[in-house]
Amino acid sequence: MPLNYKKWDQLELSDDSDIEGHPNVDKRSLIRWKQRDIHEKREARKVKIEHLSAQIACNNVLYPRIQSIQASLESPDSDKPRTVYFNSLVEQLETKPSKECPPGNDPEKLEQTYDGMLLSLLRQVGDTAKVAVKEAGVADDQREERIGKALADGMKEHVVRLKETIDNDSKELEQELKEQKKHITSEDMHDGFANKYVPPKPEPAPLPIAAKLDKPSKPKATTTTTEFEVINAPQKEAAAAAEAEDLDDDIANLTPSLEAFSKIPLRGFEQSFRFIQDHRDVVVPGASDALLGAAFKAQYDNKPKYAKQCVHQSLLLQYGDKLGVDGLRVFFKKMIAGDKRAEAVFMDDVEKTYAHLADRVRRSQEEAKKGGRETIMLASENEGDITFNVPAGPPPDELILGEGMEDMDIEEVRKALQFRWDIFRALPENLQKALQTEELAEVNKVLGDMEVDEAEEILQRLDMAGIIPFSEGGVRDETPAGRAAAGLPPAAPEVD
């Protein structure tokens, strides 16, 4: 196979082989000037290519919007004059401008956004139309009609001029790219036969919620048990509630990428599309459900603006999924191009979905206010099974151990009694009084007014101290106050 050496013709050399010197100028200076000229032209060409590419991309976004406005002015609605439509459009861009802008521009500066550029053009066309009608001396009854026609002609002229600009810039960009490819530079160098395999990036994993939503429900085995302490829901319902709570947590807990994606403003289609291209882990199974879960939580926390943004971004992913393999690109192409009918359908779906979600949150909050609070109660088939070992006071200086307990360390007994008394004194005052009555109904009344976490903690402390529900096991408070509290007669005096 013959070798092709034509590519070496593209080398742009700057050595002394092609430089004819001047007798009064040294050759080294000529070589340096030649090198600098080559590099300056190369950089200027690169800057011009970047400028033309950015200008073409910006004009491609503005052109369909200007074309749509011109078409609306050419065939106006019979119920709405052209001037009214034009003025309402200007007012919308002035009061509610979008922050979408070309890459590298400042979205906080109106003049650097797409809406700001379009507003500047509309103002220019409007001023020109008013001046032309005024100079023509049109009668007042025909003034609105003539201004509307002048607006349509002005927008048509700008549509033609912008199309010519895009075509000319495209041709010039093509010429510059051809010129750039004529010369080989260091940027074009690459390893010809390097054996380097770069594996493709792995597909992002689906969110945990996707697996839980797709998992078929399995029948659970039931067992018969006797419960001494009952929380006011059966065990099956409590397990179902715990599973639902785990599911809600998986929905509402967004990944960092999804959280950033959810904060993109409404109608930020171009920004959303760029974000999806840079973050593949946004388009995964379960992402749409997670965004809806975050919307529900935000609405419940009285953050309606963020809730609607989450609904908006969730529907973006849903629409892309419904449109097929290349659905996201097709969807965003229509939205960025300014397809009013497609955008109206999408935004109507956003409003309806958000309204449905807000209604669900409102009904959920109303049900919660009616008394859906979880409480803890103590229950037993026989009230006599629950005993109350309520201490009457701290351990006395003189302790008497029960029969058969003589070998116990009296100091350990004192510590146990002191621990029980400390636990009792640390309880809320109303619970202390309820325990002293030794009535289960009174204790449950106090526990029912507590939050679940607080009641559970208190029951654990009562269990540890042996105040409830265990029966006494041999250590007994034999002080007069303790025997009286236990319903025992006074102890007989000791005889030496």
UniProtKB/TrEMBL annotation:
Give the main location: cytoplasm
Statement: the UniProt record of this protein carries the keyword Membrane: no
Q: Where in the cell is it found?
A: Cytoplasm
UniProt keyword annotations, A-Z: Chaperone, Cytoplasm
MF annotations from Gene Ontology = heat shock protein binding; protein kinase binding; protein-folding chaperone binding; unfolded protein binding
Q: Which segments carry the region annotation Disordered?
A: 473-496
Outline the extent of the Cdc37 N-terminal domain.
2-196
Q: Which residues cross the membrane?
A: none
Q: Which residues form the Cdc37 Hsp90 binding domain?
A: 195-375
- GO biological process terms held by the UniProt record: protein folding; protein stabilization
Q: Which residues form the Cdc37 C-terminal domain?
A: 388-494
Q: Which InterPro entries match?
A: Cdc37, Cdc37_C, Cdc37_Hsp90-bd, Cdc37_Hsp90-bd_sf, Cdc37_N_dom
A cellular component term, taken from the record's GO annotations: cytoplasm
Keyword check for Cell division, yes or no: no
Q: Which Pfam families match?
A: CDC37_C (PF08564), CDC37_M (PF08565), CDC37_N (PF03234)
Listed PANTHER family:
CDC37-RELATED, HSP90 CO-CHAPERONE CDC37
Q: Which family does it belong to?
A: Belongs to the CDC37 family.
State the protein's name.
Hsp90 chaperone protein kinase-targeting subunit
